[in-house]
Structures are given as structure tokens and as C-alpha cells.
Automatic annotation (TrEMBL):
Protein name: Homeodomain phBC6A51-type domain-containing protein
Alphabetical list of Gene3D superfamilies matching this protein: Homeodomain-like
Residues in Homeodomain phBC6A51-type domain copies: 11-115
Lineage, opening ranks: Bacteria, Bacillati, Bacillota, Bacilli, Bacillales
Highest taxon above the source species: Bacteria
Organism listed in the record: Paenibacillus marchantiophytorum
Amino acid sequence: MSKRRSVLEAQITAQQRKAADLMAENAWHGIVEGVEKKTMQQIAEEVGVSRRTLYEWKEKEEFGEYLNYVSDTQLSAMRMEANAAVMRLIKAGSVKALALYYQRHALLTNVTEIKDLRESDGPKRKTEDEIRQDIADLDAMMNG
């Protein structure tokens, strides 16, 4: 078990962990075979709390962090399938999939060139003597 998971688990109860695990699994319905869609009421009953309690837990930062951790872990476990899907798309001729592959492996980067034209197109900078003269002119205007 990772240190992060241990820290997150220590911040919530066993019931909250079970609820988060069920909720994260429930999100995979229709994506992963064998995952049946459950209602929040069904999850609440399985955990032994009210549906309202589940919604209250979802608002708590610690519960949300653990739920996100579980979800991220499940997503990471799907990386192999995602990579295989990208390769299938590349073999089918998808230019976008090919670009994604190259970007993922830092073989293709987007470069934006910005050219600063302010020096050549901007106003001419005054010399110190010109600035002194401007100050003297302003002084003369102010003091009569």
C-alpha cells in the first residue's frame, strides 16, 4: 500500500472508504464489463448509511481526496488498454492518434515563435540631454 493511500485512509472511516470505493467503481459502469450501475441509495444501503450521509461525505475534503485517489488509481490501471486503443487508431490511419503518440513520448512539441518588434516600431528613446531640455521647458512653463 502506498504512503499516500495510508495517509488518506487514516483521515476517513471504514464506512467512508467502502462508500468511496463503491462510488469510484460505479463510475466505470458502461466502460468496464461486469460493473453494474448502482444508485446512491443502493450504495448507501450497502455501506449502512443514509443517502443523505453519502452526499454529506462527498462535500468533505478528506472524503473527496480519497475518492479522487481511488478513481485516479483505477484510471492508471486502464493505461494499457488506452495505449492499445491509440495504437489501433494509428494503424487505422488516424493522424490525431499519431500526433498524440508523438506528443506523449516528447517526439513532437508545439513551438510558438514570438517576435518582439517593439524596438524597431516603437517610439524613439530620448537622450539624457533631450530629457533635461524637456524638464527645463516644463519648469519654464510652470514658473512663468
